[in-house]
């Protein structure tokens, strides 16, 4: 039976429960921690627990995937502290962030095999002194096209996923009203390396308003993630809810994931755009699921998207 690889080890996927597949426990850009006297695991965990604890209590959230690889402030010590205090499962990410705000020089110039070895080690041997094993591979692209460095990272990750079964979750830019082709480009690269589409969740795909584009993607066997729910400046939730309802009505509920891309803490502070549009971990359940129900999405499909689909993706 497949297991989910949490920060406290492998567990049967049946134990994941309601799962948010793209969130952040601590988000921090490269360099932010290098002159940071205020950085403290316990106080960061305090802040995350206040917010996430409410969602766990009110809505029964069982599992959170922290979608930040190391360049995005991944801190397995905070992840473990939060998981321990709240009794939730947290899954850490290996992989790479986008070229425009991540990818240090050492990776830019590395061979694909070296990059694949790094990702494999983070999955099979773990990170940090406690050897915490990662349970997803994060990938990101910066623009409407995927540049040569990002393409190399995608190819490395696809090979690791093919070999280990570890799921891939992505970040795509641009997000906005424009009908963007980036999700398709990401999928083309991953599948050309032999990755299994059922192991792939294309992220931030809710930056489109084109249902047919999404249907073309899910027909190829991957999942599409509405993982910026609540980010009204990108696309209003009303549009997202219409697209989710459309995918469910077309028979693709098993290819849809729901999440917020919320940060428990952004160190040292949130970007102005994020601060102006603050959410909380419970927002998905408090605001978006009722909107889906009102739009005709069945309880069965909601359970499929919030429990069954993440369970299928995260087990390997
Ligand atoms: Zn994110």
Structural description of this entry:
The chain is of the alpha/beta class and 316 residues long. The protein has one domain: TIM Barrel. Helix content is 41%, strand content 17%. The strands form three sheets. A six-stranded parallel β-sheet has the order 6-7-8-9-10-11, sandwiched between helices. A four-stranded parallel β-sheet has the order 5-4-3-12. Helix 1 (41-59) crosses helix 2 (76-86), helix 4 packs across helix 5 (148-164) and helix 5 packs across helix 6 (182-192). It starts with a strand and ends with a helix. Bound molecules: zinc ion (ZN). Zinc ion binds at residues 22, 24, 67, 171, 261.
Strand order of the largest sheet: 6-7-8-9-10-11
Q: Gyration radius, to the nearest Å?
A: 18 Å
Going by CATH, what is the homologous superfamily? Metal-dependent hydrolases
Domain tally: 1
Succession of helices and strands: EEEHEHEEHHEHEHEHEHEEHHH
* Fraction in beta strands: 15-25%
Shape: globular
Report the top-level CATH class: Alpha Beta
CATH-level-2 architecture: Alpha-Beta Barrel
The helix content is 40-55%
N-to-C terminal Cα separation, in Å?
Answer: 8 Å
Poorly predicted ranges (pLDDT <50, ≥5 residues)?
A: none
Helix-strand makeup class:
alpha/beta
- Count of DSSP strands: 12
How would you characterize the largest beta sheet?
6 strands, parallel
What's the pLDDT, averaged over the residues? 94
Predict the CATH topology.
TIM Barrel
